Amino acid sequence: MSGVIAVYKPAGWTSFDVVAKMRGILHTRKIGHGGTLDPMAEGVLPVFVGKATKACDILPDVRKGYHAGFRLGITTDTQDITGKILSEDGRSVTAEELKAAAEKFIGKIMQVPPMYSAVKVDGKKLYELAREGKVIEREAREITVLSLVIDDYDEVSREGHMMVLCEKGTYIRTLINDIGEMLGCGGAMTSLVRSYSAGLALEECLSIEDIQRIVGESGAESVLTRLDKCFEVYPALKLDERVTGLYKNGVKLRAEQAGAEDGSVYRVYGADGAFIGLGRMTDGGFRSVKNFFV
C-alpha cells in the first residue's frame, strides 16, 4: 500500500491528529504529511502512505494556495483571532487603500516568523517559548508571494477575505498582520482554508469521515492517489524491460539507454508502466535521485 491522500483537514485538528487518525483507519504506521496546518486552519493536507513517505521532503511543487479571512483594526499575540488582543484601532480603511497595501507584499519579500510557529531557535520551537510567555528576536526570512487578491472587503466592519498563492515557508497570518501594520491599524487572521498543496487541490480532498467509509467499503487502496501525480512537473521516462532491471539494481545507464537530457530530472517508469522513482542524467550517466519501489 503506497500513495497519497488529499485529506480535508477540519478546523480544530492538528496535522498530527490527522496522521494519527489515518494510521488507525489504514492500519499502518508508515504515514507522513506534506506541510503543517495550524489547528484553526482547514483544507488540503497531503498525507503520504507507505513508500510514498519518502517523497515528503523532495516535493517539487512548493506552491500553496490559501483563502484567508481577516479583520483590520486589531492585533493579537498569535496574529489570528484565537489569540489575546494586544491593540485595537478604529481608523477607517478604504478598499483602495487596502488593495494598494496588499500589492506591496507580492513577490520576494522578507517576513519575520511569528512566535506561535514551529520554527526552531536553539533547538526549541518558537511556540513552546511563546507559551512560556517569552518573546525573542527572530531573523526575517525571504518568502515568495506569487499572487495576492482581495476577494471581498467590507469598509464598515473592516473584514474581508483574500486569495493567496505563495511558496512554502509563508505565514498567512503574519502576512495579514504586516499588511495591517502598513495601514497603521493592525490586522488579524479570522479564518484559513488551504486550497492547494503538493499538486493537490481542494476539490480532490476527502473528509476523514469519507475516507473511513470508503476504506470500510472498498479497502485502503481505493482512497490512494498515485504518488507520481505529485511529480508531474517533471517529464516522464519509460525504460524497456532489460534496462528496468539494470536501473533497479543501481547500474548507471548510458545516455542512449535512458534517452534523457543532461541535468533534467525525470519521472522514471518501468517496462510494466509502474512508477519507479526520480532519476537524473549527470556526469554522462543516468542515475536514481530517489526510488520508491523499495
TrEMBL record:
Its EC number is 5.4.99.25. One of its GO terms (biological process) is mRNA pseudouridine synthesis. It comes from the Bacteria. The active site is at D38. Residues 23-172 form the Pseudouridine synthase II N-terminal domain. Keywords: Isomerase, tRNA processing. GO terms for molecular function: RNA binding; tRNA pseudouridine(55) synthase activity. PANTHER family: PSEUDOURIDYLATE SYNTHASE TRUB1, TRNA-PSEUDOURIDINE SYNTHASE. This is tRNA pseudouridine synthase B. It comes from Ruminococcus albus SY3.
